[in-house]
Amino acid sequence: MSDNALLSLIIFLPTIGALGLMCFNAKAEEAMRNFALVITAATFVLTLLLLGRFDPAQAGVQLKVLAEWIPNWNVNYFLGVDGISLPLVLLTSLISLLGMLASWSVKKQIRGYLILYLLLETGMLGVFLALDFFLFYVFWEVMLLPMYFLIGIWGGPRREYAAIKFFLYTLAGSVLMLIALLMFYFGSGADRTFDLIRLAEIGQGRVPGVQFSEFVQITAFILLFIGFAIKVPVFPFHTWLPDAHVEAPTPISMILAGVLLKMGGYGILRVAFPICPVGAQYAAYCLVLLGVISILYGAFAAMAQTDFKRLVAYSSVSHMGYVLLGIAVWKLADPNLGTTAGAEYWESGINAAMFQMLAHGISSAGMFFMVGVIYDRVHHRDLNQFGGLMGLMPEYGGLAVGIFFAGLGLPGLCGFIGEVFSVLSAWNYSPLLAILSAAGVILTAGYILWAVQRVYLGPEYKGPHREDITPMNGREASVGYVLLAFAIILGVYPESMFGLMRETNKQLVVNMTEGYENSKKNAPKVSAVTPDLGEGVLFDPIAIPANPGAGALAPAIRGR
Amino acid sequence: MKFSELLSKLVADTCDVSLPLFGPELCIIGAIVGLLLVRLCNFERVLPASFVALAGAGAGLGISLLQFRQFGDAVAEQASTPLFTGLLMYDPFTVFFRVFLLLFLLFVVYLTILSGIPDKEDGPDFYVLLLGATLGMMLMASANHLLMVFLAVEMTSVPSYAMVGFLKGRKLSSEASLKYVVYGAGAAGVMLYGISLLAGLLGAANLTDMAHALLRFSEMHTEFSDPAVRALVLAVLMVLVGLAFKLSLVPFHFWCPDAFEGAAAEVGGFLSVASKAGAFGLLVRVCLALVGPPDHESTSLATVNLYLGVGLGIIAAVTATFGNLAAYSQKNMKRLLAYSTIAHAGYMLMAVAAMMVVLNGSEPPDAVVSRAEAARDCIEGLLYYLVVYFFMNLGAFAIVALIRNKIFSEDIADYAGLARQAPGLAVCMLLCLFSLVGLPPFGGFFGKFVIFASLYNAGFYHASMWVVLAIGGLNTVFSLVYYIRVLKVMFIGSATDDARTIDFSMASNAGRYVLLVSVPVLLLGVLVNPVSQIARQVAKQLF
After folding, report:
1. ipTM of the predicted structure?
2. Which domain holds residue B524?
């Protein structure tokens, strides 16, 4: 299979599956479930094929697919993977598969549910694979529609409120993103483009004659950041999250926590940072601070919850704070020259943030699944009415405790690596913020251990529906085992993921630091030269260090 | 020149040039005469009136499509041709609107056949009105003379008044019609006064001559304190009032919700799309006449026009915001769609405002696209939006009409549980409404995108356009709430026990019709380039 077909098929196989579901008899629910499961499994296999073709030693985008979509506006169907998107693509297809296995708990209107679920998967994979900003935006929005109905129809008691809140928050964020998109498009010179790689080169001052001004970079960065921060979610844009996560049905909570939140972090790394290095540096302190606030606020909020699922939801706010922390620890050595201090710390911060996204994708999806398993049996989630589940359901108890420990960040499990490296890299940036974020680890341990104690330990189960507590069935157990296995593998052998992303992240750091230096080098000249000269004159191509890695991509794309 | 020569020249111009190019309109006129004959001779039993209307619209559409293809063959060089000694203008823009309106007419006539409004008895009357209004709209889009501007607007309005009140015996309908007439008459009077002032001040009524006359005028009168200038500005504003009434722009929108609620959904759909399209065609023509010939050096004229553009932008922003916010509390679906129509007129007006600003603002030093190209993008956005609006709004109104035939209600609350009973219908409604919000992958998104893009670019010419853009973006979020409220009732709500059940098969003619209208909404969001290319070609000819 050609690369072209492979990437397109990864995105659109779920859509084809959704269309296929229309052919089934409405009564054949079991057959439809199995069919949808096969489709998600096939998508997962395809992403594994993608992994096989990916060369981790190479930085930059590989396996590119490029076709015209709307030539009038220079919009292209442009796909590709690099070290940032590939792990997330794998995560998406894995969580979609596991979520589909967990979907047997959904009982009503099966066909509609499965169709929307598969459309959602298309949207998610499209976001991670798209390299054209317009296409990225389209996929980003395509996700909203199925998500609204998945929460709104199959959710809990306050589902309508939660669904519209989710929709409104995300739509507001994407309108801001649309404005930033227009700013880039009209700022990208005579041959206007949406190509994210080309836009990044312009933003980093590597294209002679075109450059986004400081004002454009800062404004666009703020617009983009708010759009993505809503998705991450970062305090104070997080208030949709507890509602949406709590009301959504279990598999959808798994997807929300496991994949959708990652899109915020991915968007920052793919769009906001590379295109606006000046804006990123301008806002770096604010970003790190927001990350730390999210860590602490999320942890305290989680500690105060009595609803089991809400606790897990707030733990997501806390855990995703580490992602923002790791991404943004970009410290300048000399603000006038724009040189970076300790670029290797920042690089390790980005690696840690990426790893934390993957680890959180596994652990929080697992935690939501574990909550869902017990909720399906006893139909309540009140932490104070649990207890003693370890005795009643030993297999479930064991798996759940393992996964909760992964969320806690126990060494040897996946949560540990991301947290510890992002805190370490934050030390270089600001010891105070590093200490505060490290304190978050203790709080995390606090609320998770307390939750484990109240739910799984203790002498006896105190709540209603005691008679319904039955051991996990094979399907549930397999989801649990797979998630726990991944939590252990990632915790013991983090290189499995670091290896994929290292080169790309290294290149990103190099490009951005150089981009920032370029903008500083060009800045004094702007004031020195008479203002009525065009920007092309201000640019001095000799002053720009050659950049073979990502620069080599430019002719490949431009020369099409 | 002797009188006889003049006369023979006139005859030659009329018979050789104008009438052949006037073919589509002649088809409609023929169909109207045919309908009246059917009525007169009681042929309805043998030859249903709807067939005559369909035949007329189809023939007209065929001719306009042929004309469109001619332009397609010889794109670049074909200049515009004035018809009837300059009363009308024949150019790609005209033909685009002819195709648009006649295709829409076909869709509406077929919808009325499916939904059974009007009944057999009233058929000929109704279709005469419908065809007459369409004829007026086609003239609006091709008007090149102030006299034609007024005639076309009236020719559209008078049948519309009657159509709104067509559900005889219903109090609401008569009330709506009366409100519409009174409001329309007032607006028409103001507009006529404005036209007479304009013609008197400039000594020209032909829009092409008017542009040159304006230029001379602006050279003679440079001060705003000059009474002649004030009278001129007043005259332009008065003409715009007439158009704002047709476009239901705030503050001339009050007739719209009442008229739509009182009228049958089919009529509402017709008015909301076709009459808007015609009025936007006319607005663009009037605005371009005010701009004057390209590359003129008059700064005072440009300044006045720039402020006109900014003013249109402000009205657009207010209209969109008002329409969206007022739609929140509506319980009747037609009323909700009426407010949504107002909001969409606001979005589309943003494109015209951006065009005026781009054509008259001071060119930014680092502009990468020329003024003409930027203006072309604005009109491309307007035309693309109109094409999408055709399908998404007609789809919404058609579904309202078809549901009304089943449950005899147009209240949103009565749509509860529709998704269970008629999933196909509900999904088509979903396509239309999400496209109205402007979400990808539906066509409404791309239309909005192009308009927003041209607004952003216009911001370099005058920064107020960025404010309009921000308000437009905000409105997208506002509008989500009420559209999704309808969908929430349909998909999440469950029907009460005493509600009438809807038995609707997608395999019926009505089902296929709904698919035919709503699937293009999705297609226009995915296969964007063909229509974008047509809109661009048409827009290019204007600048």
Report:
1. 0.93
2. 301-543
